[in-house]
Amino acid sequence: MAGEALTPTSYIQHHLKNLTAQVGGDGPFWTINVDTFVTAVLMGLLIVFAFWLATRKATAGVPGKWQAFVEIMLEFVDKQARDTYHGTSKLVTPIAITIFFWILMMNLLKMIPADFIAKPLELMGVHYWKPVPTADVNATLGMSISVFFLMLVFAFRSKGLGGFAKEFLTAPFGKWMMPFNLILNIVEWVSKPISLAMRLFGNMFGGEIVFLLIWVLGGAGIVGMLGGAAFGLGWMLFHLLVIPLQAFIFMMLSIVYLSLSEDSH
User: Fold this and answer.
1) Mean pLDDT, to the nearest integer, of 4-22?
2) I need a surface site. Which of 13, 14, 16, 104 has the fewest CB within 10 A?
3) DSSP character for 5?
4) Residues of the domain holding 59
5) In the predicted model, is pLDDT for residue 58 greater than 90?
6) What is the pLDDT of residues 108-150, one digit of tens each?
7) Residue 146's Cα: distance from chain center in Å?
8) Choice among 18, 203, 254, 259 that is catalytic
9) Among this protein's residues, is 195 annotated catalytic?
10) Does residue 92 form part of some domain?
């Protein structure tokens, strides 16, 4: 964007554009959103390191502040998983912990103004960097598709391949309505990961646009800057609720879907 006069529209479009890398030469096999991938990995490593610090100094006596906080959060997620999931798998709580804290860390990047990340990167020659991975539909679809495959694994483990196929073709209307059962079940199974991804993406992407709009509209004059700061602070405080809530909803729906995949009609 160097040398170009930024308008409000171009400013927003600039901050919503991903840094991409093509894999496959002239006819690329795929395009990777480098900023989404790198940021998501860094946030995952950061939460793993933070939890490792809590376990490294863990004590059976009076816990430190960080250990106490981590224990409270893990017990909260574990309770939600146990209350929601009615099967026998021991993987559900680790899955829930991974989903919740990873999404929470990625969502928290929304609290950092976009220019605080973009401007230093521009000085290093990186002109596009979308900072919030969950505002990229590729990231949310990737996580929801992973949940979808877990649903299949849980269903096959519980019912077997034959039992799953039989239920898929005969439920809920019986074997004489097999074509309708097949269509209904395909729609039901496909809609779950799509709705899971779009809900998280829509909330985070919409919030990102509003943040950028407030930043742009509040840039004209002292009054505009003060008004933009006030609206930005209000929107930021509102997102202190939205950010953990979206992580919680994604986690809970994932557990519900895993539980339903093991249930029989």
Assistant:
1) 76
2) 13
3) P
4) 20-262
5) no
6) 998 887 778 888 888 888 888 888 999 999 999 999 999 999 9
7) 12
8) 203
9) yes
10) yes
